[in-house]
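pinned: reference chain
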Amino acid sequence: MRGSLRAMFVTILLVLAATTAVAQLTVTTNDWVYTTFDVVTITVHNAGPSQALFASSPPCVIYRLDTQECVYGCFGLPVLWEMGVGETIAVEYDPYEDAVPDPLGWYRVELTGVSSDPGSILQCDYRLVEVVPNGDDSWGGVKALYR
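pinned: its structure tokens
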């Protein structure tokens, strides 16, 4: 009996040791509100303890929340690539780069990784708003009246 308990204990330890840790990924943008002609900088970080595996390049997609329409990364290159432990990459996206700019509203950035730790943050949101002109009714216009 004592030998079988020891064998079971050793087996459990081997199974626990054989399970591999997965990557802890986070995705963020450099702001949460963008105006006309701002460039959205998306940062992806792998905190470890292992490499992250991605199924496409770029490592993320962006879509409008109200229509679920994909605006970036929709047709990523179907390549497998790894992101090392501690590695950070930045992707720049210009919503006004195309002939038809992205409409105003809320957008979601979502990672296309295939390996992530339960503590990962795999998506973040941002809002695209129009620029408010510096007219007479703005704060800058009111301050200018008293200078």
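why pinned: The longest helix spans residues 2-18. Strands lie at 25-29, 33-34, 40-46, 52-54, 60-64, 70-72, 81-83, 88-93, 105-111, 123-128.
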